[in-house]
């Protein structure tokens, strides 16, 4: 039995990506507003296809260093975004939380709901000790998500990344397993 079986929350199903997800994935990966604070530029359909294929390949890796779930809204059965963990340093029991949503679904608490489930997976099933997240300091919505799921601001990397023609300040948030289990 895989620990990466679909995760059910109140309004969402988090499942691994499938080839047939390309069109819905491309919808948010080609939206400059969705990607405005991210390093990634908008994708062509070919770029979105390559991005999807990368996650399909990661599903075959053992151990898994990158886990990415398609976020499915139960009510509409639509793919509305992605959420997952990057764990290239799994030997240190650490992961990085990542997420993005189709803007049509912003402001409904879906990112918070999905991120909370993925953090739970990281601590409860994967045995991580620390999960962190980094975002553009201007991305107030993402900061709100991180704080709602119990992450603590560790600091700010000033002019940390050159993105889309300007320097970006990046804020870093984290949560430890002990903090997660106390909140739960």
TrEMBL record:
Swiss-Prot/TrEMBL keywords: Ribonucleoprotein, Ribosomal protein, Transferase
One of the record's GO cellular component terms: ribosome
PROSITE patterns, per the entry: GNAT
Gene Ontology MF: a single term: acyltransferase activity, transferring groups other than amino-acyl groups
Presence of keyword Transferase: yes
Ranges for domain N-acetyltransferase: 12-178
UniProt-listed SUPFAM superfamilies: Acyl-CoA N-acyltransferases (Nat)
Organism domain of life: Bacteria
The name this protein goes by in its record: Acetyltransferase, ribosomal protein N-acetylase
Species this protein is from: Desulfitobacterium dehalogenans (strain ATCC 51507 / DSM 9161 / JW/IU-DC1)
């Amino acid at each position: 039995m895989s620990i990466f079986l679909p995760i059910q929350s109140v309004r969402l199903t988090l499942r691994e990506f499938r080839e047939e997800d390309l069109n819905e994935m491309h919808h948010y990966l080609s939206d400059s507003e969705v990607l405005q604070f991210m390093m990634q530029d908008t994708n062509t359909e070919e770029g979105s296809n390559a991005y999807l294929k990368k996650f399909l390949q990661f599903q075959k890796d053992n151990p898994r260093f990158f886990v990415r779930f398609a976020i499915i809204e139960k009510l509409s059965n639509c793919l509305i975004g992605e959420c997952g963990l990057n764990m290239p340093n799994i030997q240190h029991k650490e992961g990085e939380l990542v997420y993005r949503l189709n803007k049509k679904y912003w402001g409904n608490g879906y990112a918070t709901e999905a991120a909370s489930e993925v953090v739970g997976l990281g601590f409860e099933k994967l045995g991580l000790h620390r999960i962190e997240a980094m975002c553009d300091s201007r991305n107030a919505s993402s900061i709100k998500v991180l704080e709602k799921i119990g992450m603590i601001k560790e600091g700010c990397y000033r002019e940390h990344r050159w993105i889309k023609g300007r320097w970006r300040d990046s804020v870093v948030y984290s949560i430890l397993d002990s903090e997660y289990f106390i909140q739960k």
